[in-house]
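Entry for zinc ion complex. Fields follow.
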Amino acid sequence: MNVIQPLLDLQAVDGFIRELEMEEREIPRRKAKENARLAGVNAALEIAKNQLAAMQKRIRDEEAEAGELRTKAQTVRTGMPGIKSNKEYEQTAIQLETLDREAEAAENRALALMKDEIPTLEKQVQEAEAKVVAESGGVSGYVDELDERLKDVKANLAEQRAERVEKANAVKAIDPAFLLYYERVSTKRWPVVVPLTNDGVCDGCHMKQPPFVAQLVQHNAKAASEGKSQQRAACTMCGRLLYTDL
Ligand SMILES: [Zn+2]
């Protein structure tokens, strides 16, 4: 009985399982990366909003200061008709002038901030908002796709693992030692069962094999075709199982 063919069948299923397992590990990583990207975009919007709010507060503070100064000036102005001495009048006039000047300065600062800073900050917020809208749609769609794919992968894995049991049993039925050897090597090398090339080279590690290995491989091919049992022909370098078709 040919043991190589059932081993190759098992290896094909195992190869598929390996790919699926890799995808099963990779999908949550990709999902986390997408979510982190979205979190970054949201954080950028938060920062832009905070910067705008801080600037708006600065402007309100300047306006409030101007308002206080104007009120103070108004109070002083109201009291002016009652002033008796010339000196006091002059002092009050200077005080008024100062209050008006300071109020105007605060108003000008508020206007300058509104003109120079606010449009830029508002634009930043709008851009950040647009990015959030664009990204969240894309990310949530992509994350949904990843979730779907993960479900498929898991279902597929379950099927393949069931299939694997059958394939492993088929090898075991012919020669349990081959299965054990295959399982052991597969933890370190992949694929495990490889052809011996026409030049007598292991197709796994590309090492030229000594003549006795080549002879054993030939012997096995003949034995398989005659329905006789085969011996283990392994690469002297990497330990992979070698075979050839007659
Ligand atoms: Zn090898």
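NOTE: The pocket of zinc ion is lined by residues 202, 204-205, 207, 235, 237-238, 240 (CB under 6 Å).
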